[in-house]
UniProtKB/TrEMBL annotation:
Gene3D superfamilies: Rhodopsin 7-helix transmembrane proteins. It is found in: Membrane. It comes from Mytilus coruscus. This is G-protein coupled receptors family 2 profile 2 domain-containing protein. The keyword Transmembrane helix applies. Its main location: membrane.
Length: 426
């Protein structure tokens, strides 16, 4: 939770991520994803060759002609820039990010006053489609990084946010159709060969800088905006506008360490007391349960006459519950050692599965006695049944553990520690 104006706010992570409060990070739930559209806003500066300067005398003589040529060259240069930019971006990302498909430039914004200068600045929207399994973190970081020299001349692309486009003055969207961009002759370029997948209804992610940071939501009235920064009102905290995600009624900003509430600082006194009481009660109940199970096992081990078939079942059930409680209570924070944490997680999973199965075995044995009148007083019958129950318990537990481990390796979709165990808790 986050402290702001004496109240806690929900910490929000991107889809398929969860908030790791201990490290203040958004962690992946899945190792790889597929079938995703990525939409990125870029501010691009296209460098042109220097144009011949028109002398003052010529400008005075041919002013009307020059102005007409400027307008014509502006539209022509913009179309050339569009084609060069799309070709360069698509070639670059399809080479750098394997399996990515550059579908199209969905929007192209330019200054209202276009000049025939050596540097043309635009804001563009690029759409990428990745249908195969891929590392989303690597792809997003590549798309949200600035890069240069991907075109014929040195040009620079800088990722920006959607909000940055809204607050940049004097920009207008380029009209492709009325300006002849979609003339048939332009479709000779190889990158215009688009797959039908580009028009499929896949999940769309709007990529911004620091996309994977944990975020909190602020209302519009709580912030101040300018062309470069977002400032929290009454706080000395400033964020670059390109890292901000705009919502319908506010903004999502990265959770800064200065905004994280220390224990008790953002909680009321009653809430802090309630949390402390819950923790103490949980500890008392767990210790009581462990103590009772230990006493139960001691009694069954000391008194031989209690070690009938139901008694053996109770003894094994108590053992599973005792060790499972102990591992959960004292071992779940052993994240400092990866191997130990994974071992604790795997063993805890096995023991809780075993506890459920031995409860099932107890009820099954009672059913067999009352319905089939099975004789369990004979030592030979007792041991045969006990061995069968023991084999059943171990086999089913190992089957579930094996399924979990095989899924971890085969699906390639999980990042939950190693072998599917151990994350921020063991």
């Amino acid at each position: 939770m986050h402290l702001f104006k004496d109240k806690c706010r929900e910490v929000i992570c991107p889809e398929r991520h969860y908030y790791n409060k201990q490290n203040n990070k958004c962690e992946r739930i899945y190792r790889n994803v597929r079938d995703v559209f990525y939409q990125v806003y870029y501010k691009i500066t296209v460098q042109q060759e220097k144009v011949d300067q028109i002398t003052v005398e010529q400008e005075k003589v041919d002013q009307i002609i020059v102005e007409q040529e400027k307008v014509e060259c502006s539209i022509g240069c913009m179309i050339d820039d569009y084609l060069r930019v799309e070709d360069g971006i698509c070639s670059y990302f399809e080479r750098v990010l394997s399996g990515s498909q550059c579908c199209y430039l969905s929007n192209w914004y330019h200054p209202k006053d276009i000049k025939n200068s050596t540097h043309h600045e635009y804001i563009i929207v690029v759409n990428f489609l990745v249908t195969n399994l891929h590392n989303q973190t690597m792809y997003v970081e590549s798309m949200s990084s600035s890069f240069v020299e991907i075109f014929e001349n040195k040009s620079q692309l800088e990722p920006i946010s959607r909000k940055a486009l809204d607050i940049v003055p004097d920009l207008t969207e380029f009209d492709y159709f009325n300006n002849g961009l979609y003339d048939a002759s332009y479709y000779d370029y190889p990158f215009y060969t688009r797959d039908d997948h580009c028009y499929a209804d896949y999940k769309t992610i709007n990529v911004v800088a620091n996309y994977f940071c944990p975020r909190i939501k602020l209302l519009t009235k709580e912030v101040q905006l300018n062309t470069s920064y977002l400032t929290i009102m009454n706080k000395n905290i400033v964020f670059e506008i390109n890292s901000v995600i705009q919502m319908e009624d506010g903004f999502l900003i990265c959770l800064d360490d200065r905004m994280i509430a220390k224990r008790g600082s953002g909680e009321s006194k009653s809430q802090t007391q309630r949390n402390d009481i819950e923790n103490i009660l949980s500890l008392i109940c767990s210790i009581t349960s462990i103590t009772s199970l230990a006493l139960t096992m001691t009694v069954y081990l000391l008194l031989k006459e209690l070690r009938t078939l139901p008694g053996l079942q109770q003894l094994i059930l108590s053992f599973h519950l005792l060790v499972a409680h102990a591992l959960y209570l004292f071992g779940m924070n052993a994240t400092y050692n990866t191997a130990l944490c994974v071992a604790i997680g795997l063993l805890t999973h096995y023991l809780w599965l075993g506890s459920v199965l031995w409860m099932h075995i107890c009820t099954l044995n009672i059913f067999r006695i009352f319905y089939y009148h099975v004789n369990t007083h004979s030592i030979s019958n007792r041991m045969k049944l006990f061995q069968r129950y023991l084999l059943y318990s171990i086999s089913v537990c190992c089957l579930f553990l094996t399924i979990n481990i095989v899924y971890f390796f085969v699906s390639d979709n999980s990042t939950l520690g190693y072998l599917g165990y151990g994350v921020d808790r063991c």
